[in-house]
Structures are given as C-alpha cells and as structure tokens.
Write a structure and sequence with these properties.
The chain is an alpha/beta fold. The chain folds into two domains: 218 residues, DHBP synthase (Alpha-Beta Complex); 93 residues, Rossmann fold, CATH 3.40.50.11030. The chain is 34% helix and 18% strand. It contains eleven helices and 14 strands. A hairpin with a 6-residue loop joins strand 9 and strand 10. Helix 1 crosses helix 5. The longest helix is centred in the last third of the chain and has 17 residues. The chain starts with a strand and ends with a helix. The mean pLDDT is 94. Bound molecules: threonylcarbamoyladenylate (TXA) and magnesium ion (MG). Magnesium ion (MG) binds next to loops.
Length: 330
C-alpha cells in the first residue's frame, strides 16, 4: 500500500511498523530503499529474503545525523569527518569500522558498517519518528530484487514487492542513481562506487586523493553495487557509439523489432516497432531518468536495449558506471 509521505500520519504509521519489526519502502534523494530497524536481526533477515540477496552482502544503515555515527562505528578518520561535514545529509555512504554487537546482520557479518544520512525530507521525517520510538538506524538497500534495476518511484517499489508492503511516496527521486560509496576503513579513502558525487567532488570534500586500486577493491568486503554485472534490466543492454547505432538502424530498416534505443544523438528508423528515446545532454538529468527508462523498456517487452555510450566527462561517472554494469550482465 502506497501512502503519501508528506502526511504526518503516514510517517507515524511507517515508524510504528518499523519499530514493530516490519519492512517499509522509503524514498531517498537517490533511489527508494527497503527499510528495516538495523538492530532487529529478524527484520533485517526479512530484507535479504524479500530481495533474494545473499546474506553476506552488507546493507547501508541510514541515520538521522552525523551524531548517530558513534552508535554504529568506532573510529572516523579525519578525511571521513570532512566528507560528512561537506556531503551530509546527502548522497554519500561511508564504510567505517563497526562497533561490536550492533547491526551485525545488517552489516552482513562484516567488521565494517556502511552509514548514510539521507537528505530527502520524507526520509528525514521518518528517521526522526523512528528515533522517537528508540530506532536509531534504518538498514535499507535499494528496493529492488537482487541484481535488478533500482526503483526511483513508489510505483516501482510496489511493482517489485507487491501491494502488501507499506511504501511512503516521496515523488520521483531527484538524483536517480545510488549514493557514492567511500571506504573509510583504511589509511586512505577508497572509492567503491561513484554516484552523483564523482571522484573530483569527493576529493575536494575529503581534502585528499581517493584510491581506486583494483587490487584493493578485490580485497574490499563484498558490495553488490560493485559486482561487474549489476543493475540489469531483463532485456540485454548494449552500449554503442552514435555511428554504430545509425549503421545498425539503417541495416535493419523496417525490420527492427523488439529493440529500444536511448541516445543523445537524434536517430531515425524506418521501423514503427522501434522504441526511440532521447537521453538528456545533461548528466544529472540522464541520471534522474536512467532507471525509469530501463524499466519502461522492460515493461514494453523489448529484447534488446541499445544505449549510446555516455560522454567521457567526470560528471557522467555515475551514469557510465551503472550502464557498464548493466551491459556486463547481458
Ligand atoms: O543511494 C543508496 O545508497 C541507496 C539508498 C536506498 O540509500 N541504497 C543502496 O543500497 O544503494 P544497496 O544495498 O543497493 O547498495 C549498497 C551498497 C552495496 O553494494 C553494499 O554491498 C555496499 O553498499 N555496502 C554496504 N555496507 C558495506 C560494507 N560494510 N562494506 C562494503 N560495502 C558495503
Ligand atoms: Mg542496490
């Protein structure tokens, strides 16, 4: 059931459900999450079951403010303090050393914990209402089945998990791709996943360079969002340059079927069965649309999704990362 997240009674109902160990669909500025009380092992287990996610893949714990970090983490290096000061509330997750005995199941048994303070007003209202009920952290992975496209509307969440789930509607997510993840458990920060915040912005905020050493990433704890094949639509996704797209559409002509195309370049096809959508020229606009576009192509039943390779600029890091992983799953 979808409730209007701007209504106080909906927030109270969702907070009561979470305090009672139930799951709630939660809007954030990035994507919708499937939330549970981070310290309730049975509720957290229900998230893993609902998503079909392996239990050793840790979940992000959402907190109301930086002052809650000490409940879950032991040490916060100076660069992580600077990142929190600059980027919270907002689309940044920090991996920190976990305090023993807290949120163990949510952390997938790792000695570390992923923490994020979301900026979405509905998420903030819900976290405040939860705190008033003694719940100080919400474990919430993206509200999609394991490996699938993240949801950016309340309707997407209902489509993944059915009507029985209480979902707070906070409108379409303004960012549209998941938070950036920085590992702050080593001497230097390591970028595990770019988001709207890319490497350059994070380095400015951290006041030091970010590592992305592949060897280090191999040793890093399991992170679903860093698997080579992830964020995948049902149809096969392929990244192509504009000229390859033009050539392919010319060759297929009126025969093109079961294909959807998302491109910045204007394209034409002689086939009326082809789905053509324009990718915005602006990276932030493209990020906002990305997952909804992939879902709409799946809903239309296409077999192939051809996407024009995004531009090389740093502001496209997050979109490029998601598209490359979706293509790797094909
Ligand atoms: O924007 C977001 O981050 C969204 C919204 C709902 O906040 N959440 C999200 O969660 O994307 P999820 O579970 O789909 O992706 C979280 C990523 C996963 O790749 C997970 O493995 C990684 O964060 N992660 C969480 N805790 C970790 C830890 N202790 N060490 C390493 N990676 C961790
Ligand atoms: Mg996810």
């Amino acid at each position: 059931m979808i409730l209007d997240g701007s209504q106080a009674d909906a927030i109270a109902r969702a907070a009561d459900a979470l305090a009672a160990g139930e799951l709630v669909g939660l809007p954030t500025e990035t994507v919708y999450g499937l939330a549970a009380d981070a310290d309730n092992a049975a509720a957290v287990a229900a998230i893993y079951r609902a998503k079909g996610r392996p239990e050793d893949h840790p979940l992000i714990v959402h907190v109301a403010s930086a002052t809650d970090v000490a409940r879950f983490a032991t040490t916060v290096p100076a660069f992580a303090q600077r990142l929190m000061a600059a980027c919270w509330p907002g689309p940044l997750t920090l991996i920190l050393p976990r305090r023993a005995g807290v949120a163990e199941r949510a952390a997938g048994g790792q000695p570390t914990i992923g923490l994020r303070c979301p900026a979405h007003p509905v998420a903030r209202d819900l976290l405040a209402a939860c705190a008033a009920r003694g719940v100080h952290g919400l474990a919430a992975p993206s509200a999609n089945r394991f490996g699938r496209v993240s949801p950016t509307t309340a309707a997407h969440v209902a489509a993944e998990f059915g009507d029985a789930l209480l979902v707070l509607d906070g409108g379409p997510c303004p960012i549209g791709i998941e938070s950036a993840i920085v590992d702050a458990t080593r001497a230097a920060p390591v970028l595990l996943r770019p988001g709207q915040l890319g490497r350059a912005a994070l380095e400015r905020a951290a006041g030091e360079p970010l590592l992305a050493d592949d060897a280090l990433l191999q040793q890093a704890p399991k992170a679903s969002g860093t698997l080579a094949a992830h964020y995948a639509p049902r149809a096969r996704l392929r990244l192509m340059e504009a000229r390859e797209l033009r050539a392919a559409l010319d060759i297929l002509g009126s025969e093109a079927r079961h294909i959807a195309v998302w491109s910045r370049a204007p394209l034409r096809s002689a086939s009326s069965a082809l789905l053509l959508r324009r990718m915005p020229d602006d990276a932030a606009d493209a990020a906002r649309e990305l997952f909804a576009v992939l879902r709409s192509f799946d809903d239309a039943g296409v077999k192939l999704i051809w996407v024009e390779t995004p531009p090389a600029g740093a502001d496209w890091d997050g979109v490029r990362d998601r598209l490359e992983r979706a293509a790797a799953a094909a």
